[in-house]
Specification:
By secondary structure, the protein is α+β, with helices and mostly antiparallel strands. The protein has two domains: 150 residues, PAS domain (Beta-Lactamase); 204 residues, Heat Shock Protein 90, CATH 3.30.565.10. It is built from twelve helices and twelve strands. The protein has a five-stranded antiparallel sheet, with helices on both faces. It has a five-stranded mixed sheet with strand order 7-9-10-12-11. A two-stranded antiparallel sheet has the order 6-8. It is elongated, with a radius of gyration of 31 Å. It is an enzyme of class 2 (transferase). Its EC number is 2.7.13.3.
Length: 364
């Protein structure tokens, strides 16, 4: 702590504050026995605990001016103690959150403690971070409230993990719906061509098996294998695996031409996800929704990897209204991660999709 720390520690119940909020979970033990001659004074011990806490611990006056600022506050917010002490606490509060300070001070004046309040604060460099904030009143020797102590913990990673979990759950829900839609479509294909119940059953099993193979490509199961090696294939092989379930009487409804390229690892998964989205939409609304429909794919690979997707013989298509659903968001995120671009031509005779990815990215 700085010079004012001993005075601050006289008026704050830092034993409770630090023991319950510090991520280091330091425990303060008191004893009725006299301390040894070499034992540090209680105030100095508490000051050391505060100064070395993993959580940012800050005190301020009732006017909002900072009176102490520990090392973790320096790391978390980017201001040194010399820069922060004496400044108004609003230096770390975003403009759209300034109203929170009035609410906090109002609670402190009323003697109320605010626990684990999740909010957003601003670093010296302007970046924002998610924090969990605990605020307690500071009282003088007469019991009068003279300020507040704040303990802030960075929860940015926890927030990001929760957002990733929600995204994965949404993707899983989206993919399950797509799989059911495709399964329903391939059963319809088998129904049109089969002449007996055993033939229908064999055909449906083969198509479902093809769907399972395609699903393995989009989400490879690494399991607990220590020496897991990323899957590797070619783009043409990927297309054939993904669309094997759409064959009718052994005739492939998706043809591919141009220059084949090797794909592996994250690139394989990303391309499989994109093609899966394309095929799902074609199965629901486009060329693969009718028996006579088909798809032509043309691939070029020079400075950029480029793909042209043409739907032929399907129902008339029109550009949908609105921003699109989760599938559109997933497609946009996937293309962005590949540093690529995607365009669509909504021709009534059939949809055209143009996908471009830098060849340097494809080779990673």
């Amino acid at each position: 702590m700085r010079e004012e720390a001993p005075h601050l520690l006289q008026s704050i119940d830092l034993q409770r504050e630090t023991a319950t909020t510090s991520s280091s979970r330091a425990t303060i033990v008191t004893s009725a026995e006299p301390a040894g001659v070499d034992a540090p004074p209680a105030q100095a011990l508490l000051a050391a605990i505060v100064e070395n806490s993993d959580d940012a611990i800050v005190s301020k006056s009732l006017t909002g001016h900072i009176t102490s600022w520990n090392r973790s506050a320096e790391r978390l917010f980017g201001y040194t103690a010399n820069e922060a002490i004496g400044q108004h606490i609003s230096i770390i509060i975003p403009e759209d959150r300034l109203h929170e300070e009035d609410v906090i001070i109002g609670s402190i004046r009323g003697g109320k403690r605010i626990e684990h309040y999740e909010t957003v604060r601003r670093r010296k460099d302007g970046t924002l971070l998610d924090i969990s904030l605990t605020v307690s009143p500071v009282r003088d020797s007469n019991g009068s409230i003279v300020g507040a102590s704040k303990v802030a913990r960075d929860i940015s990673e926890r927030k990001r993990a929760a957002e990733r979990q929600i995204l994965l759950l949404r993707e899983m829900n989206h993919r399950i719906k797509n799989i059911f839609a495709i399964a329903n479509a391939v059963i319809g294909l088998s129904e049109r061509t089969a002449t007996t119940v055993p033939e229908l059953a064999r055909d449906v099993r083969a198509r479902i098996s093809a769907l399972a193979i395609a699903n393995d490509l989009t989400l490879p199961d690494v399991g607990l294998a220590v020496n897991y090696q990323p899957q590797e294939t070619t783009f043409f092989a990927l297309v054939k695996a993904l669309f094997a379930a759409h064959q009718v009487d052994g005739v492939e409804r998706v043809s591919i031409g141009g220059q084949d390229v090797p794909v592996r690892g994250n690139m394989l998964t990303s391309l499989a996800l994109l093609l899966h989205e394309f095929s799902t939409n074609a199965t629901k609304y486009g060329a693969l929704s009718v028996p006579e429909g088909r798809i032509e794919i043309e691939v070029r690979n020079d400075t950029d990897f480029s793909l042209i997707w043409r739907e032929i013989g399907g129902p008339a298509v029109h550009q949908p209204d609105g921003p699109g659903g989760f599938g559109s968001q997933l497609e946009k995120a996937t293309v962005g991660s590949l540093q690529g671009a995607i365009e669509r031509e909504w021709n009534p005779a059939g949809l055209k999709i143009f996908l471009r990815i830098p060849s340097a990215v494809l080779r990673r």
